[in-house]
Amino acid sequence: MDTNQPPSGMLQDLHEQVALVTGASSGIGQAVAKALAQRGVHVALAARRTDRLQALSEELASDGHGEALVLACDVRDPDQVQAAVRQTVERWEHLDILVANAGFGYRASLVDGDIARWKDMIDTNVYGLLLTLKYGVPPMLERKRGHVIVTSSVAGRMPTLGGSAYCGSKFAATAIADVLRQEVGPQGVRVTTIEPGVVISEFQEVAGYTPGILENMLKGATPLQPEDIARAVVFAIEQPVHYAISEMVVRPTGQAFP
Ligand SMILES: NC(=O)c1ccc[n+]([C@@H]2O[C@H](COP(=O)([O-])OP(=O)(O)OC[C@H]3O[C@@H](n4cnc5c(N)ncnc54)[C@H](OP(=O)(O)O)[C@@H]3O)[C@@H](O)[C@H]2O)c1
Q1: Is residue 195 within 8 Å of 157, Cβ to Cβ?
Q2: 258 lines ligand 1 (CB under 6 A)
Q3: Share of the chain above pLDDT 70, in %
Q4: Cα 189 to ligand 1 centre (Å)
Q5: 143 vs 193: CA distance, rounded Å
Q6: Among 10, 86, 116, 184, which one has the highest count of C-beta atoms within 10 angstroms of its own C-beta?
Q7: H-helix or E-strand containing 128?
Q8: 25 pairs with which residues across the strands?
Q9: Cα dist from 162 to 21, 63, 157, 172, 217, whole Å
């Protein structure tokens, strides 16, 4: 039993824990990074758009949440991912929370699919996820504690028209997280797969959604905001260490499908 932990039933104090968040320059990753920083977590912010990360870091500092680490990191590049993990551990000596969140969407029927977009998507959502986990998990295994959050999607549970590549990438993300959980759970590292429904972010623009796509999914329902997902992520992380939330599906109430 870990005697440093609060008694069963009490939430963990995240103060002074260390998190690395990929895709922290926008949307869900940015909201998770903020929510963790607000709870006293030291956050390392990783993405390609470092100007965004710098602005977030300055916002967190001016709100009194300490200095975040800004890391230029394309998750498709093993050297950059390794460097991001190394710099985080060098700065704060350990890693408690890894939020593997970087990713993007793309919809097209299979025969119309753009093969360059497919390749980029698989490289980011699948290979980039594998790299993030491969290099981010060992510092947790060394200490036999840690929490990995993998951002999959409802598209990783339910295939939809136009989602051959995206749903394929998110089914892969869910499977990768399931395997990782079996491999590292017995060594004290928790793995939570988070599967959001419609969340308003830059995702829709990057994916090239037309207004009709969202209307069809929501049918008038109020969509989620990135902060809604951040709340779910923090809920999972704050649970006592013996208590692992393996999977969280978070949809807008009225989103019946997918
Ligand atoms: N929004 C939704 O409805 C929804 C629903 C289910 C699941 N998701 C998943 O949630 C995650 C975050 O999406 P979001 O809604 O927050 O979208 P977003 O606002 O577009 O954010 C995507 C983030 O991923 C980063 N990213 C993309 N490619 C990257 C790369 N090669 N290397 C490093 N970072 C990269 C982007 O940063 P840079 O461009 O600066 O690198 C950005 O910070 C994704 O995995 C997405 O599939 C979203």
Answers
A1: yes
A2: no
A3: 97
A4: 24
A5: 22
A6: 184
A7: helix 128-136
A8: none
A9: 29, 42, 15, 17, 13
Query: Which tens digits make up the pLDDT trace of 243-257?
Result: 999 999 999 999 988
Q: Is 28 in the pocket of ligand 1 (CB under 6 A)?
A: yes
CB atoms within 10 A of CB 117: 17
Q: Which amino acid is at 22?
A: T
pLDDT value for 31: 98
Asked if residues 227 and 29 have their Cβ atoms less than 8 Å apart, the reply is no
Residue type, 107: R
Which of 184, 76, 69 has the alpha carbon at shortest distance from 138? 184
Q: What is the pLDDT of residues 66-95, one digit of tens each?
A: 999 999 999 999 999 999 999 999 999 999
Please identify every residue annotated as catalytic: 166
Give yes or no for residue 202 CB within 6 A of ligand 1. Answer: yes
Residue 191 pairs in a beta bridge with: 148
- Six-digit token string for 61: 């500092």
Please give the domain boundaries of the chain with CATH numbers for all domains.
Answer: 18-248 (3.40.50.720)
Q: Ligand 1, residue 23: give the atom nearest the CA.
A: 43
Distances (CA, A) of 172 to 41, 72, 75, 254: 29, 25, 16, 26
| CB distance 134 to ligand 1 below 6 Å | no
- 3-class SS string, 137-175: CHHHHHHCCEEEEEECCHHHCCCCCCCHHHHHHHHHHHH
- Residue whose C-alpha is closest to residue 237's, from 192, 207, 204: 192
Distance 208 CA to ligand 1 centre (A): 14
Is the predicted pLDDT of residue 4 greater than 90, yes or no? no
> What does the block give as tokens for 163?
């989602």
Distance 246 CA to ligand 1 centre (A): 21
For the segment 31-35, the average pLDDT, to the nearest whole number, is 98
